[in-house]
Amino acid sequence: DAMVIQNPRYQVTQFGKPVTLSCSQTLNHNVMYWYQQKSSQAPKLLFHYYDKDFNNEADTPDNFQSRRPNTSFCFLDIRSPGLGDAAMYLCATSRLQGGTEAFFGQGTRLTVV
Amino acid sequence: GESVGLHLPTLSVQEGDNSIINCAYSNSASDYFIWYKQESGKGPQFIIDIRSNMDKRQGQRVTVLLNKTVKHLSLQIAATQPGDSAVYFCAEELNDMRFGAGTRLTVKP
Predict the structure, then answer these.
(1) So what's the pLDDT on residue B26?
(2) Quick check: B96 and A98 CB within 8 A?
(3) Which residue range(s) make up the domain with B16?
(4) Sign of the Cα pseudo-torsion (B7, B10, B13, B18, in order)
(5) A42 vs B34, B45, B102: nearest CB
(6) Which residues in chain A are contacts of B57 at CB distance < 8 A?
(7) Nearest residue of chain B to residue A48 (CA atoms)
């Protein structure tokens, strides 16, 4: 049974058109992460939440925002997608902030046309 | 800033041989490390972890070694199988989780 669910698996959006990716978890974990992964590269941390505390990476573009309305759900909003934002977006959860493994969803493959 | 990195981008082994995948980290404060396996089109999957107060940890067919003196982490896979073909990432977790560059393992029949 999937524990971290990302929807949709594949998303095509137009250049400049806002898009939202979603992630839900059934693990009741406190920490949720969003990563961007481009082809043949490692996942790059965009931001993470510890409960409601939001932590933004310094090099995450302003174009990317996140919301976590409750423990189970987290959203990645891309306000004006550019061609360079095409990537796999991975959501992960962890029980604690540090010292525990993270569980990943299957990712959302974003294409920008 | 400090980050986790890998020595080799690709590794090709014969089925049945042992594989060793290496990782270097630079943050001496890191206290928890994880190896993940990622198959094409899927999210990373946990393989094994190790805390900084340990030097070695074994799982089923996998062993992780941690050398804090030289800030080096390795993943050993015994009797490598075709199903082990994937990209392997080490990750460092302190207050968040960061990945190294990854090694693509190819197992030849």
Answers:
(1) 74
(2) yes
(3) 4-108
(4) positive
(5) B102
(6) none
(7) B96
Q: Is B53 on the interface with A (CB under 8 A)?
A: no
Note whether A107 contacts B98, CB cutoff 8 Å.
no
Distance between B43 CA and the closest CA of chain A, angstroms = 4
pLDDT at residue number B6? 42
Q: Is the dihedral of CA B66, B104, B27, A91 positive or negative?
A: negative
Q: Does B43 touch chain A (CB under 8 A)?
A: yes
Cα–Cα distance, B101 to B103 (Å, whole number): 7
If you measure CA to CA, which chain B residue comes closest to A109? B41
Average pLDDT along chain B: 90
CA distance between the termini of chain A? 33
Q: pLDDT tens-digit profile of B43-69?
A: 999 999 999 999 999 999 999 999 999
CATH number at residue B35: 2.60.40.10
Q: Token digits for A82?
A: 């550019």
B31 touches chain A (CB under 8 A): yes
CATH code of the domain occupying A4-108: 2.60.40.10
Looking at the 3D structure of chain B, how many domains does it have? Answer: 1
* Residues 6 or more apart in contact with residue B93 via CB below 8 angstroms: A94, A98, A99, A100, A102, B30, B31, B32, B33, B34
Q: Is the pLDDT of residue B30 over 80?
A: yes
Rounded to a whole number of angstroms, the distance from the CA of A63 to the nearest CA of chain B is 21
Query: Which residues, at least 6 apart from A19, have a Cβ–Cβ distance to it below 8 Å?
Result: A11, A13, A77, A78, A81, A110
